[in-house]
């Protein structure tokens, strides 16, 4: 007899990087060129020294179990950052909660707010999307509805594709701004429209903002809580924002972030997390206090990305349909012909360069896969490696 498992696990799709491995399994990359990968969005700039110093200074804290709610010092450091960054005043005790990176929290929020006993329980996602959204929804027992990005509007999500009947079944909406993969930032009017839909139908908005500190315009991207405050929604009703130190401070291995917003929702989320075993390590909390309290390393990090993008983007624009994004560390480029998978396979075989086909980041919805015909380029390596990758793409494309 086979052992029992959760049948919802069978509904999960392979992760994009696993699908890419399968699609390139039979390819032998050109051995004459060193391997370069622009496939995974893993920050590779140096981490600030202050984080390591804080870890070393807090080793004695490992002698005690941490509280799931985090230390007052960490919650206050996060609240202070929200005030400096967005001009927000939040209650550090009830409207802020540290999490072990935004990824685990984005998954866990669906398990907290979705009620699968309600007929047609639905989670709405942008498309393309971060696959955690879909997996979280399916494992929570919900169906997934997708709203496609519109390339004619700088890849803004067309929420009008979700009809009233679907909104009425919706319990959770995932928003990503700045977006992955396009880097598009949602304007205030779009936030207002989503808040009005949330008020009408009662769903929760989970705002994924982990790319908020890497941007290329003079004005920093608008955040979800900031938008709510500007619209007089200071209680952040049905809204939780998620962010992380991974991209901001180049410490993806630290697994540190926070959620902030609706106090009633965070109370339930804390209850779930207490049972789930989600307390943050004391040394990670100490390091996080140091990181959230310092902006100098963030300014330096942003300058590094701006310099890279300023050189790489016009180079690639010679051969690909690509433009500087609003924010984030990806370029979302259209390939010269429609087959993004074949383009990625050829690039790997001939130039030993890995990129992520856009169709792997999206689902067929409303008659189209909105990622098809595009590739995502993660400019996370140093400037020299990113420029070398760009030159290889130019050479490959011109040879076509």
TrEMBL record:
InterPro entries associated with the record: Aminotransferase_I/II_large, DapC_beta/gammaproteobac, LL-DAP_aminotransferase, PyrdxlP-dep_Trfase, PyrdxlP-dep_Trfase_major, PyrdxlP-dep_Trfase_small
Cofactor(s) of this protein: pyridoxal 5'-phosphate
EC number: 2.6.1.17
Pfam family, one: Aminotran_1_2
Domain Aminotransferase class I/classII large: 36-393
Cited CDD domains: AAT_like (cd00609)
Annotated GO MF terms: succinyldiaminopimelate transaminase activity
Top-level lineage group: Bacteria
Keyword list, A-Z: Aminotransferase, Transferase
Protein name per Swiss-Prot or TrEMBL: Succinyldiaminopimelate transaminase
Organism expressing this protein natively: Pelomonas baiyunensis
Taxonomic path: Bacteria, Pseudomonadati, Pseudomonadota, Betaproteobacteria, Burkholderiales
Gene of this entry: dapC
